[in-house]
Amino acid sequence: MIKPNLDIQAVFMDRDGTIGGTGHFIHPRDFELYPNAQEAIALLKKNGIKLFAITNQYRISRGEATIQEFEEQFSEYGFDQSYICPHDQECG
Length: 92
Known about the structure:
The structure is a single chain. By secondary structure, the protein is an alpha/beta fold. The chain is built from two helices and three strands, in the order E-H-E-H-E. The chain has helices spanning 37-46, 67-77, and strands at 10-14, 50-56, 81-85. The chain has a three-stranded parallel beta sheet. The radius of gyration is 14 Å and the shape is globular.
């Protein structure tokens, strides 16, 4: 069992290539977590650590997916909040 570091209050995780997928765009309906990723998320939550998903998904700006689809996916995985950049160009 991993003992939680009480100094850690939150973890920020990227989506593509970190918790699953191939490192490239995969629509939320086709996305698969890596083996044990869901268990790792649950373990962090069990230890009182807030989880934040972060991802840049420029294909949202092209109409290939919606922010809501990504937000729902992250919520289902157990993330407390998600931060999604939908822009085709670099964010300011």
